[in-house]
Design brief:
single chain; 0% strand; 67 residues; mainly alpha; 3 helices
C-alpha cells in the first residue's frame, strides 16, 4: 500500500485504477459458513461494544501519534 501511494504521489503510477489493474489479484475467495452465523453475530456484537468503549481512546492515541 505504501509503495503504491508513493508511486501515485510521485506520478510514477498514473491513477488509482492501476491498483486493481496491475497491483491486486484476487486468487481465492473465502465465504462465511452459514452454520456459524450465530457465532459470527455474537462476536460482531462484542466487537461493536468494544469499539464503543474504546473509540475515544483510540482517536486520542491517533492524535498523539500524529505529533
Amino acid at each position: 500500500g505504501d509503495a503504491f501511494m508513493a508511486g501515485l504521489g510521485g506520478e510514477i503510477i498514473p491513477d488509482l485504477s492501476a491498483l486493481s489493474r496491475e497491483w491486486v489479484r484476487i486468487v481465492d475467495r473465502v465465504e462465511p459458513n452459514p452454520d456459524h452465523a450465530e457465532r459470527y453475530d455474537a462476536l460482531y456484537a462484542l466487537y461493536l461494544d468494544l469499539y464503543a468503549q474504546t473509540k475515544e481512546t483510540m482517536h486520542q492515541l491517533g492524535r498523539i501519534a500524529a505529533w
